[in-house]
Design goal:
Layout (H helix, E strand, L loop, with lengths): L11 H33 L4 H50 L2 H7 L1 H25 L2 H16 L1 H48 L1 H6 L3 H54 L4 H43 L21 E8 L9 E8 L4 E5 L6 H8 L7 E6 L2 E2 L5 H6 L1 E4 L8 E2 H8 L5 H10 L3 H5 L8 E2 L8 H13 L5 E5 L7 H14 L4 E5 L3 H4 L4 E6 L2 E6 L1 H7 L1 H15 L1
Parallel strand pairs: 3-10, 3-11, 6-9, 9-10
Antiparallel strand pairs: 1-2, 1-4, 4-5, 7-8, 11-12
Helix pairs in contact: 1-2, 1-4, 1-5, 1-9, 2-4, 4-6, 4-9, 5-6, 5-9, 6-8, 6-9, 8-9, 12-15, 13-15, 18-19
The protein binds adenosine-5'-triphosphate.
Membrane topology: Multi-pass membrane protein
Subcellular location: Cell membrane
Organism: Candidatus Vagococcus giribetii
Length: about 575
Amino acid sequence: MLSLLTYAKTYKKELILGPFFKLLEAILELLLPLYMAKLIDEGIKSGDTQQTIKMAMMMLFMSLIGLVCVIICQYYAARASQGFGTELRHHLMKKINALSHSELDAYGTSTLITRMTNDINQLQLALAMLIRLVIRAPFLSIGSIIMAFYIDTTMGIIFIITIPIFSLILWVIMKKTVPLFKRVQQKIDALNETLKETLQGVRVIRSFSKQPQSEKVFDTVSDDLATSYQNVSNLSALLSPITGLIMNGAIVFILSAGSFQVNTGHLSSGEVVALINYMTQMLLALIVVSNLVVIFTKAFASATRVEEMLETQPDIVTTEKEIDDSWENTPLVSFNNVSFQYPLSRGYALKQINFQLKKGETLGIIGPTGSGKTTIAELINRSYDISNGEMTLNGIASFNYPTGKLRQHLGIVPQKSTLFSGTIKSNLLMGNPDATEEMCYSALELAQCLEFVTALPEKLDAPVLANGNNFSGGQKQRLCLARAIIKSPDLLLLDDSLSALDYQTDWLIRKQLRSVLPDMTTIIISQRLSSIKQADHILVLDNGKQVGLGTHDELMKSSDIYQQIAAAQDEKEVH
Ligand SMILES: Nc1ncnc2c1ncn2[C@@H]1O[C@H](COP(=O)(O)OP(=O)(O)OP(=O)(O)O)[C@@H](O)[C@H]1O
């Protein structure tokens, strides 16, 4: 947990001055009961009005100074804790962006969200409390004991006896709550996961009228979280009454022993009032300590989860070597006996794949569902690294190609169209932040979406809802294509990304791409033969194996599977 404090290093001043001002306030608070005793013994009891007013004014003045110190401390605590949280979130986001797809799959989206929000909030709270209370509370507890000894040794011993009893109770409760807090965090992850799935699939759930079942699943997960919270709360709730019981018992003892000592002349009544004040101060300080224990227990569980992420070493290693970044080399893309196995999966998704692609050429990839087509795109993008064989891009072995540089040359249109909330323009600028309006319109024209975008009243500034939910499947695909084209990539990868379009639009897009960007190397993954028929090379996959490579005419003679696909699609077109 301490290692995370490095993210607060820019707030050294706040981390030192915050506790310092709180300490000043605690010293003043510790002196107040002494003045109270003087006010009673030397002022009220002796009927000395001047001394009473003097002491009262002194107490008021000290309280006002204390108030100023508290305000300054709160300010520093807020600055440091919020700044620390922001810094931590920034580094966590950076780490998430550096993780490979397999690592992200292993964590899951929900836990990433919980760690980014709930866990960092807990850590922010812990830092604020550290500044505000971690010195003040023990200082007040110890100071109260010293002041009690200063007034009367016997009374000081009563203060001392309460400490180990209290600490034992704290220790027992803490030992039991730490694992429960960890469980609560896991349940929050589970709730987020269910919520995410339900919201993402809300249309499907409604279309199948499965709302009652979906609510039942949600209720189960929600009840589970409530039960875990209840278990923790039941234990934590024991803290206040137990500490209150012990301390109030001690006050009763002070009162009875004190009244006896007042009668024998060993203590003044003002000193008994001061002792009760010190006992109350210690009581409150110890309750604060117990609350701090709860806050730090939660923060400890959160810190472990945040540290785990920050310490994860991305399995896609990128070197910073100087490389030839020209994308003029031949072959531009080469697979040499490439095999690949997804982490945690049993078999190979791709086995011994071989093909070469020159600049400006087009490769079509076809094959039944699950045959490994998307996996090839994932390997080229270095979302995953190959397991065996050799893959070169621009003549450089993939392992040596820094991912950041590599991806600048790629334009990928994924199978699942993903748009982000904002405007059409903001989505296009993701492809090329420097693109002018003219470039935006040219890309939209190439992707055959100029017509529907210009028909919108706001045109390029038309709003895009989260996931592009205000556009049709085909419109989303074309906007994603425009986003990829606008960066003028050296290699365009279309992963079944024109499937929602009619044959005419699909054909028009390919024709336009060929005539406007003749030098662009393209890989078209498709289930439709018509989309890849014209390609310079066609790779046929079946169950991860390469079962054909050639032109359409060659494959029509040599590949059984290709012939079967052609026959099936011909038949479909006839029907
Ligand atoms: N993230 C993953 N983890 C484990 N296995 C995966 C993962 N993604 C895909 N696979 C498996 O790898 C194989 C190839 O999947 P891939 O997505 O490449 O097929 P595809 O030919 O693109 O299929 P489709 O035409 O349906 O999109 C499948 O058996 C699939 O179950």
